[in-house]
Amino acid sequence: MPEFLTLLPPDEARALLLSHLSGPLADSASADSLQAFGRVLASDVSAPHPLPEFPRSSVDGYAVRASDTFGASESLPGYLTLVGEIPMGAPADMSLAAGQCALIHTGGMLPSNADAVVMLEYTQTSQVSKNLGGLPATEIEISRAVAVGENVIQVGEDVRAGQIVLPRGTSIREAEVGGLMALGIVSVLVVRKPRVGLISSGDEIVEPESAAGLGRVRDINAYTLSALITRGGGEPVRYGIVRDDFSALQAMTQKALAECDAVVITAGSSASTRDMTADVIRTLGAPGVLVHGINTRPGKPTILGAADGKAVIGLPGNPVSALVNGFLFVQPVVEKLLGVLPRPRPTVMARLTLNLASQAGREDWWPVKLIANRQPPTANYDAELIFGKSNLIFTLAAADGLLRIPSDATGLSAGEIVEVVLL
Amino acid sequence: MPEFLTLLPPDEARALLLSHLSGPLADSASADSLQAFGRVLASDVSAPHPLPEFPRSSVDGYAVRASDTFGASESLPGYLTLVGEIPMGAPADMSLAAGQCALIHTGGMLPSNADAVVMLEYTQTSQVSKNLGGLPATEIEISRAVAVGENVIQVGEDVRAGQIVLPRGTSIREAEVGGLMALGIVSVLVVRKPRVGLISSGDEIVEPESAAGLGRVRDINAYTLSALITRGGGEPVRYGIVRDDFSALQAMTQKALAECDAVVITAGSSASTRDMTADVIRTLGAPGVLVHGINTRPGKPTILGAADGKAVIGLPGNPVSALVNGFLFVQPVVEKLLGVLPRPRPTVMARLTLNLASQAGREDWWPVKLIANRQPPTANYDAELIFGKSNLIFTLAAADGLLRIPSDATGLSAGEIVEVVLL
Fold it and tell me: What are the boundaries of each domain within chain A?
């Protein structure tokens, strides 16, 4: 039993692994801006023109010269001459002289010389005769003064021309898609999806479509990790199941490492198979095994290594351990390869329903079910622990999230508000 | 200005809309269990056999009859005769007699008559000569007693045969993929993706690939909503841009309604275009317009309607309003059509950095940026408000989430811990 002499805290272990990886992938591909949803920008995007490109009204009302409305009030309204209606979808090809106004709709372009809009609510229309070549003119009664710029969206108020609006590394969500379309940028460069090779090792493992039968179990980890990698923006590459044989595991890992940006081996859980994984990682390139044993539960036997700038991770074979440690170590590797700018991790605050002991120095991750209650704002949920050995995949299928017990805690008390990372 | 006489609270408005929709879609399709990641189960999945199918060791050690270890301790160890090693990946075709044990690896199958496993840590091996036909035998020293079932995963401990393991409506995450594979279920029935028709209306709107120019703006909403619908598990169907013309809008909406499960119209923001959307919805089928005006900001002009069991939603044209109200009203429609079992919404608790006024009775949604700080566990982030008119899509691109100010609040104070819904 030579292993686990020193168990690293998970944060330290992760930082050490990431420090040995080459930076973000340099490869990129062009993608339609809508298809790029969920991908990561490979280069800065800057605005080819200001947004908006012309001064727009933010309300329905009358475009005016603000100075013409000064002093106007309900008791002492001002009067402006209506000279037209701004068409939607076309330039406002009119200009206001002093004392004039133009009907404008939300989103319409301000005519030149106009610098504010009076909302419809503060106006009244009155048809009056005036000596304009005998034609009847319309006067608009203004019962509220406006300041310069009021109810107007200025040119460049959203973004200025040339401004970097979305930096490299931005993950493209709904709003980014919208911003790109607003600027007429219908395709962007996105980072290639990092390829993560997945190898399942163990004499007892068979493919999911096989009959399992006595002594054998179906491969779970290659599939849960495929889904995890997909969700994180990577591309899983499955290399199938390798027997518990050093040469076979070494050959398959070398092949995967040559073809992928990172490799994950889920080994059997026995000490001998874990040792074999570590021995294989030592042969692949420098620096080899970085961490063998992490002070976390589940996941103590996790092995973190790197070979020539690529991560090689050995996860325990227990499906709960493999998936939880996939979240802890594989996902950050994918994120580093993508060069994605960090975003807050989705969590829920919940109230723990029972006392929970923990070993000081060890970080625990517990599957929990969240039961809605009504105690806003600090806890809308009760967190109920799901007990079960880390071999039982359905304990995770029943869970809404994972409760982290920090390594400096010796336990948590019933009623405490805890943070649950959503699964 | 006939509208907005009564503004419904958003929760009430949403409930009213959902109550008028037909239930979840009845159509389903078969999907490979890994490809089904992110989809929703169309029927209950039950276990074809127990999991595990055979009693397994959860540690490396010796399979024993627990009664043979009773009383064993470090000061007074017990001794058992080693009769073999359990192979991995094959049935354990041996049986233990009294006083015997077998070497077993983690995940290995217990031999018959064995009912517990002693961890390797509590054993020592000693080669001793015994009168077994003159052959040397190996004795194992046991320094710790085990109870029946200790270090054993029992048949059916994860799931029992016939148990419904994943009910209809389950959204398939990593753990569900794993559970399906563990049971050898390599394909499942998933609910068809709800088709949501998207119509953009407005004389000033042009396609994103067009030069915008004076007076015109590019369509944003059809694309942000496409992304939103995709994320929520639906299939967006874009019907392009329709001029501000009743008959044209009516014809396009009828076509979309016939081809889709729900329709969303983003209208111009002026009162007249909003009224036109409502008028069109009134002609499509019963009950027509359900809600015209919601007590929320942004999103007051949102129109919720239903025609013969299908949702027809009119969203404001302002891109921020459209997207925020897409989260509030379109996503729940997609979820209802999928019949997906509810999961907690991803949020982050954060500390507000300034005082914020709000109008009593109105629910406000503010884009916020989350700045990491170190005040666990109640607030790992500061929430900084992003100010900007609801026309400015890049205010949302700069946001990590939306801060909700409930309608019964008249404001929030700096330093308060608030819940931010992640974007």
Answer: 10-26+193-338, 28-51+160-191, 56-153, 347-422
